[in-house]
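re: that chain from earlier
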Amino acid sequence: MFSICVGLPFSRGRWLGPAALLLPLVLLLPAAASAAPTAPAPARPAAERPTARPAQVGASEEDMGLYTRIAALNVCIGRSAGVEFGKAVAIAGETIAQVIQGQHGGVILQVGTKPLTMEELRKGSINSAVLGAVEVCPKEVPADVLQKAQDVLKGPQKAR
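^ sequence. v structure.
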């Protein structure tokens, strides 16, 4: 397990915690407030106003590449912290499935325009996490899973 210590030297070997990082912001607030315009901004026409949430667009190939990489890194980090492989993959897969559901309405453009069910998203995300981990941190993948994944990545062998 690892931890990150964020702080600033205080005095006599004591550390001021992360709240001290906000101190410069607090000191700048009065200056920022006096620099702000006093008149309210003119109202924008309805067509120009930002919506609460932009229309959902299916996950592109680029999005899926990013999500696979994130899932793979999560598996690798979990494994290096001692998390059992199946658990690390399940957590990474669930995270990506939730992101695709929340950000893209469950639609993956490479698959089609129909939203996938959460179960379908989970299965695909778990597979992506495993295949990504095989590429990013093969030493953290159990030998039997590594062999199966490498066979899948090679693809079917054509008869000569």
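Confidence is low (pLDDT under 50) at residues 1-37.
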